Every structure is written in C-alpha cells, then in structure tokens.
Amino acid sequence: MKSYGCQMNVYDSTRMSDLLGAEGYSEAASEDDADLVILNTCHIREKAAEKIYSELGKLAIAKRARAAEGREMKIVVAGCVAQAEGEEVLKRARVVDLVVGPQSYHRLPNLLKQARDGARLTDTDFAVEDKFDTLPQPSRSQILQRGVSAFVTVQEGCDKFCSFCVVPYTRGAEISRPVGDIVNETRRLIDAGVREITLIGQNVNAYLGAGPGDQKWGLAQLLEHLSEVNGLSRLRYTTSHPVDMSQDLIDAHAGLAKLMPYVHLPVQAGSDRVLKAMNRKHTSADYLDIIGRLRAARPDVALSSDFIVGFPGESDADFEETMALIREVGFASSFSFKYSMRPGTPGAERKDQIDEEVKRDRLAALQALLEEQRQTFNAATVGRRIEVLFEKPGRHEGQIAGKSPYLQAVHVEGPVHMIGEVARVEIVSAGSNSLAARLCPATGEAAA
Ligand code: SAH
Ligand code: SF4
Ligand code: F3S
User: Fold this and answer.
1) Among 241, 264, 267, residue to substitute to test ligand 2 (most atoms within 8 Å of Cβ)
2) What does the buried/exposed string (b/e) look like for 293-325 if buried means 16 or more CB atoms within 10 Å of the residue's CB?
3) Nearest-5° angle of CA 60, CA 64, CA 66?
4) Atom of ligand 3 nearest to the CA of 84
5) pLDDT score at 441
6) For residue range 312-333, what is the model confidence (pLDDT) as tens digits?
C-alpha cells in the first residue's frame, strides 16, 4: 500500500488495510513480495499525477518478473487519480487491474474477486451507501502499530470550487460524519493506546454533523465533546478554510486545554485580485482579521498555510502582496507550490498563464521567506519549557521523539516506556528539522 497526497489519503489507506486484513491479506515487506499493490494516488498537481505513471512503469517490470515465476501480482490504482481519470488509467497503463475511487474503496473485496477471475475493472461511483458504515474497525494491535497519534476523518469533499483545484471533482460534495460515529471511532482508538487525535477533512471547519436528537453540531462543539473523552491527551484538526473559521471555533482555542495551539489555515495568496480570481471568497484583510482573533484567543497559537504562486494573471505586485501578508502574519511552517494547470478547472482555461521561470523565481523567494520564519519560530522555543507527546524511539540509541504543541519534532534522551506520554521538556537547541530537548524533572503533578 503506497499513499500519496494529503492526510485524507493516509487515513483511507489505513482503512483499506483494515478492510483487506479482514480478507486475509497482510502487509508485504516490499513490492517484489506483494500479491497485491495498491497505489492510493493524488491528483492535486500535474507532477503528483504523473508520478503514478512512472511508478506503474516500475511495477510492470516487477509484475512480469513474478509472472515468470508463475506468481500473480494484482495492481490497484485508488484515490484521486483513479476518480479523476477512471477508465483512462486502464487504457494508459496495461499493468493496472483495478481502478477504485475514494468513495468506493469499501467495495474492494468484491472487486478483487472479479479481478482474480481476470476482469479489469473501474469503480468510481460516489456510493449511495456510506462507506464508513461498511468498513471494518481495526484491531487493537493494528492501531498500536500505527502509533499514538491517529487521524479520524470527520468531513469529506468540498463545495468551494476554488478555480485552481480538482478536489471538488475527485472527492465530491461536502459531507460530514455523524457525531456518534466519530465519538465511537475515537473511543476505540483511545482504548487501544492512541493519545492524540487529528480530525481531518478537506474543509474540516465546515463540519456540520448529525448530533444527538435533531441537532447539527459544528466543529467547535465536536471538539469540546471529544476533549472530554478519558485518556485523550491532545486534539488537532486540519485543513481549515478561512470562510468557515467561526468565532466559536476560535474561542475553542481559548477554552479547550486539549486543543493544541496550532492552526493550518491556507490563504493561498495575499492579493485580493488574485484571491477573487481563485474564487477563495475572502480578502487578505478577512484573513488577517481571523489571525488577529485567533491570537487574541490563544496568544501562542502557531500558524501555517498553503501558498500558490503564479496563478494565471498574478503580477509582480500581486506576488509582493503575498510576501507582505507572510511578513505580517509570521508562519511557523507552510506548504507552497507553483500553480499547476489542472484539466477541468476554470484556472486551466485562462489565457494569461504565468511563465514557468517566473513561477520558479517567485516560489524560491517565497520559500526563502517562509523558511526564515520557520527557523525564527523554532529558535524562539529554545530555553522554553513545553510539553511533548512522545511518539517513537529517536534516531539515536537512548533517544525518544515526539511533537511539541506547535507540531515541532522534538527529541530527548529518555526511556522508551515514555512513548505515549506527555511530558514537560526544556528545549536546548533548534536543529534544521528537530528540536533537541531535555526532560524536566517530574514535579509530581500529572502533565495534561
Ligand atoms: N482544502 C484545503 C487544501 C486542499 S489541497 C484548502 O482549501 O486550502 C492542498 C493544497 O494544494 C492547497 O491548499 C493548494 O495550496 C494546493 N493546490 C491545490 N490545487 C493546486 C494547483 N492546481 N496548483 C498548485 N497547487 C495547488
Ligand atoms: Fe480545493 Fe478550495 Fe476545496 Fe480547498 S477549498 S479543497 S483548495 S476547492
Ligand atoms: Fe491529493 Fe486527493 Fe488529497 S487530490 S491532496 S489526495 S484530496
């Protein structure tokens, strides 16, 4: 199972593994040893989609080698390329046996049965049945293997139709899972040893799920309810859209101790002209206002964003407005991309596409500024005492590693039995990718 793209795909990959585990499959050590290979693909940018075809080229060789030994290898393309390209994938890559979309993968067992009989199939229907209702729950040992931090999908799909983006087409309309299902899934994870839950959705803060009675709950209410689950140490959520950043969600950052002070809030660009052309439905002033209110609620909140440079029509002056916005906010970390034309989106129709070289130069300047801010943010934690959730053994013998409240990687000298615990550390130095820290002497009080 190979997962590309966003957290939604990571989550779907674990659910597909659970599903196939129940069918008697287990994880192979390498693809040469696999009877079944699933690529859970991403269609967001051209590069991401093309990567799949080069991967399939390599798999064709492995498949032939196995066939020469009289062994089978079935190849499945799942995820957003599957949804976007459907049968085209079967035509373009002869090696593929099965194409299955993000809303139909719960039907994999049946599809695989047909594939074993020699059929080459595509299933990219948006299912009438709810895939979550038919998926099996993972076992305790499966959960533990995946670590103490887990994703729970609460919302899927997107109705926003930003003019550059394929997600509304690959993932379909916005839907929210019912509160009860999310609580049950969270409880199971916590019972098995998970300590941190990240609620995920393409527009997670647009969450509006069926609660008790006839009530509809928003994300703030859901977070408040989940924070009362015993044994849970930390809550996070991602990815948020600025227009759905309601005041009660902002207030939750002041009121909920388990809600971590980190918000991923993509702005994409700083120029109102570009934001309008992107169909983002907010201005840069709206964004700065949200940031101000978040900081008022939780002064130490760390912020991150996604940026696109070189959207059609973006002038040097527009780009400078993005740089100005970045300087004004100060981000702890960010993702940034050159605009990539995606088939079927309004952005791809525009005649005023930006030269590749201009995009490259803008991206380099933007990333240099974001990297400087990331390092400044990390350096500012040196000398501070903060809490870390330990997740795994560190890179060196005797070390354990985890995350700060601000999602920074932190390592200390410490015993492996502390994995799964939240402990107070003092940050000693900031490396390029991880903070070095030492454990503070236990004070007797339990760390939250
Ligand atoms: N739902 C989230 C993110 C979805 S995709 C949001 O609304 O912000 C993740 C990121 O990929 C986007 O935030 C955007 O920065 C980037 N992206 C999406 N389409 C792109 C495209 N055509 N070219 C370059 N980057 C793109
Ligand atoms: Fe894509 Fe925009 Fe929807 Fe995010 S909000 S998934 S960028 S269309
Ligand atoms: Fe990629 Fe699909 Fe996620 S296009 S970013 S895997 S929703």
Assistant:
1) 241
2) ebeebbeebbbbbebbbbbbbbeeebbebbbeb
3) 120
4) 4
5) 87
6) 999 999 999 999 999 999 999 9
| Position 30 confidence tier, pLDDT thresholds 50, 70, 90 | confident
- Residue 353 Cα to ligand 1 midpoint, Å, equals 17
Q: Is the CB of 232 inside a 6 Å radius of any atom of ligand 2?
A: no
Instruction: Tell how far the Cα of 239 is from the centroid of ligand 2, in angstroms.
Output: 10
Ligand 3, atom 3, residue with closest C-alpha: 6
Write down all domains in the chain, each with its CATH number in brackets: 2-123 (3.40.50.12160), 137-260 (3.30.750.210), 263-380 (3.30.750.200), 385-439 (2.40.50.140)
Closest ligand 2 atom number to CA of residue 239:
4
Predicted pLDDT of residue 128:
60
Give the model's pLDDT for residue 447: 45
For ligand 1, atom 4, name the residue with the nearest CA. 202
Q: Is residue 218 a contact partner of residue 208, using CB atoms and an 8 Å limit?
A: yes
Largest CA distance in the chain: 65
266 lines ligand 3 (CB under 6 A): no
Atom of ligand 1 nearest to the CA of 164: 22
For residue 387, what are the β-bridge partners? 424
pTM comes to 0.93
Say which residue the tokens 């509809």 belong to: 216
Closest ligand 2 atom, residue 279 Cα: 2
Provide the pairing of β-strand 98-100 with 121-123.
parallel
The reply to whether ligand 3 has any atom less than 6 angstroms from the CB of 158 is no
Q: What is the pLDDT of residues 104-116, one digit of tens each?
A: 999 999 999 999 8
